[in-house]
Design a protein that fits this description.
Number of helices: 4
Number of strands: 15
Number of domains: 1
Mean pLDDT: 85
Helix content: 10-25%
Largest sheet: 15 strands, mixed
Low-confidence stretches: 14-30
């Protein structure tokens, strides 16, 4: 009789432990669904749009970012961005007199508003890098190069409506948020690959975003109520974040808080305007690569 009781108690204890293990370690992964799609963000866009942002570290202006999105005549869309920022505030040794890091991206969406190709190039801590990604059916062929140090080439799963962002611009916006929404995002992360010198690393990482509620955020000396989005490396890591974003009711990203070497910095929307077709063709970028 005692043996049966012991087996029953042990079985119940094991079941309870498995339940809590599932709740803490497994269930969170199932709660994160597909990300806001390119179709949702760009299919209704009828004119080119530019967004200009300022980068702050401890309230000091250290850089600028610029994004230009435009519908294509044959269908689909093109999304280009540039970012330039000083690295001395983060306490890094700078090998050259110019301490700026730079990155540019060029993303093309096909007529179905699915990712067709992505190009990235830049300079991180005086190290030049290039990345390119091309769709091959339900996969993405990704090549990442740091010449002449290494070259990484991967073929990764990439469903039709999947989106690809980068570690400097984790979410492009364009989709209205709702409280409680959660999604997985695929990102090109040059910093992780460069610091690992390409060893057993991938240029693409997966992160987990969740709309945690609404907060007031200061934009150009005025308070704006926005949805707060928190991005984590793992869905069950409630204490640490890798990005925080504030998105207004129309889906525009007002502010992104990121980290470099565990130090937070802010990327704040300064200007947003619509361009005519001629203005888009002749657009002069204010963010230029270091020379």
């Amino acid at each position: 009789m005692n043996r049966h009781v012991w087996l029953l108690v042990s079985g119940c204890a094991w079941a309870v432990m498995m339940f809590f293990l599932f709740q803490q370690e497994v269930r969170p992964y199932f709660e994160y669904q597909a990300p806001p799609s390119y179709r949702q963000a760009f299919s209704r866009q009828t004119a080119a749009e530019v967004q200009i942002r300022v980068i702050y570290f401890a309230r000091e202006r250290i850089g600028e970012a610029e994004t230009l999105s435009e519908p294509l005549p044959g269908g689909g869309a093109r999304l280009r961005s540039r970012m330039l920022m000083h690295m001395k505030p983060f306490g890094l040794p700078v090998a050259m007199e110019d301490d700026r890091s730079y990155m540019s991206t060029d993303v093309r969406l096909d007529g179905a508003f699915q990712l067709a190709e992505s190009r990235m190039n830049g300079q991180l801590q005086s190290i030049p890098f290039q990345a390119r990604a091309d769709r091959q059916g339900d996969k993405l062929h990704v090549v990442f190069e740091v010449k002449p140090l290494f070259k990484s080439e991967r073929l990764v799963e990439f469903p039709e409506d999947a989106t690809l962002s980068d570690s400097f611009n984790p979410y492009h916006g364009g989709v209205k948020m709702t409280e409680g929404r959660k999604w997985k995002m695929k990102m090109l992360d040059p910093q992780t690959l460069i610091t690992s010198a390409g060893k057993n690393g991938s240029a693409i990482v997966e992160r987990y975003a969740a709309v945690t509620g609404r907060e007031s955020v200061t934009i150009k000396d005025r308070e704006v109520s926005a949805y707060k989005v928190v991005v984590r490396e793992q869905p069950n890591d409630e204490e640490r974040w890798v990005y925080q974003m504030w998105v207004d009711d129309e889906g525009t990203v007002l502010k992104t808080q990121s980290k470099f070497k565990a130090l937070p910095f802010d990327i704040v929307l300064e200007e947003k305007r619509v361009l005519t077709e001629d203005e888009a063709k002749a657009y002069a970028w204010s963010v230029q690569p270091p020379r």
